[in-house]
Amino acid sequence: MPSFVMPTSNQGDGHPSPTAVSAVGLRKSYGDKTVLDGIDLHIPAGSVFALLGPNGAGKTTAVKILSTLITADAGDLHVGGHDLAADPQAARAAIGVTGQFSAVDGLITGEENMLLMADLHHLSKSEGRRVGVELLERFDLVEAAKKPASTYSGGMKRRLDIAMTLVGSPRIIFLDEPTTGLDPRSRHTMWGIIRGLVSDGVTVFLTTQYLEEADELADRIAVLNDGKIAAEGTAEELKRLVPGGHIRLRFTDPVAYQSAADALREVTRDDEALSLSIPSDGSQRELRSILDWLDSAGIEADELTVHTPDLDDVFFALTGPANVPNQPKESLR
């Protein structure tokens, strides 16, 4: 599988953005199983970086290494400007981690969970209470603060989990599949929280299996497959790697369908559905050209839809044959 790497993003003044997380040649194996095979990552400060990949691709392993929970076999790794090999403790002071499984203690209240985290950060009692109150307010948990966390919904537990992560005011936060299992409303609430963190200058390293989530949130995305980075770039850059965009014309009049099929070149016919697919990058220029041609030829299509590759297409193309059918997402025009 070829590897595609996009250029490093720059600030508006043309200078490279400060790097919050850097990994060069990151390797990790368990026995004879290579999980991470020399990957490189460079994440600008104050951005959202999403790491995508199928189950078992090594996403959680990467998070555990960069958040100092486990050590790498090899690699030059820096987090928050600190060398993980030389000074992991300094890196820990700059980061927060919310894993796949909640760190919330269900036997105590939300408020007590916050105070416990404040104690772990060696905050004074007064400072711990102040920070706890501010974060509970920020995450809309004041009404539930004195209730056992076991009574919280999944979305509330996730919000409390992230609130606890923020007690130490980390500048870099690792969110490992933070919205897995949440309903759509809770997921959108979480997206708003993540955007708010970034607007405060926090760097977010996100792993997710929801491609829509990466498309919505991430400034840059990397696709991890078989222990290697298969591609990296913005969502739009990644989508341009995958061919297959097309415009679909559907007719109800067989005569109009046949006239269009005879006149247009490089079309894929579906005689049963009376539809034609024309290769296209989905640009406004191409769309206008086809509409102008239909008008000049006096041919009227009953429906026109545009399909451009999305992150699903990118994911399936870069991680091997899909086990589920690829269902193009089309927008009605």
Topology pattern, helix = H, strand = E:
EEEEHEEHEHHHEHEHEEHEHEEHEHE
Spatially, the strands of the biggest sheet line up as 1-11-10-4-9-8-7
- Fold-level CATH name of the largest domain: Rossmann fold
Q: Tell me, what is the CATH class of the largest domain?
A: Alpha Beta
Gross CATH architecture of the largest domain: 3-Layer(aba) Sandwich
The parts where pLDDT drops under 50 for at least 5 residues are 1-13, 322-333
Shape: elongated
Counting DSSP H or I runs of 4 or more residues, the number of helices is 11
Overall mean confidence score, pLDDT: 86
Region (Disordered): 1-21
GO cellular component, one term: plasma membrane
InterPro entries: AAA+_ATPase, ABC_transporter-like_ATP-bd, ABC_transporter-like_CS, ABC_transporter_ATP-binding, P-loop_NTPase
Membrane topology: Peripheral membrane protein
Note down, in words, how this protein is organized:
By secondary structure, the protein is an alpha/beta fold. It has two domains: 189 residues, 3-Layer(aba) Sandwich (Rossmann fold), CATH 3.40.50; 63 residues, Alpha-Beta Plaits, CATH 3.30.70. 34% of the residues lie in helices and 26% in strands. A seven-stranded mixed beta sheet has the order 1-11-10-4-9-8-7, with helices on both faces. β8, α6 and β9 form a beta-alpha-beta unit. α3 packs parallel to α5 and α5 packs parallel to α6.
Short description:
With 333 residues, the chain is of the alpha/beta class. The chain is built from eleven helices and 16 strands.
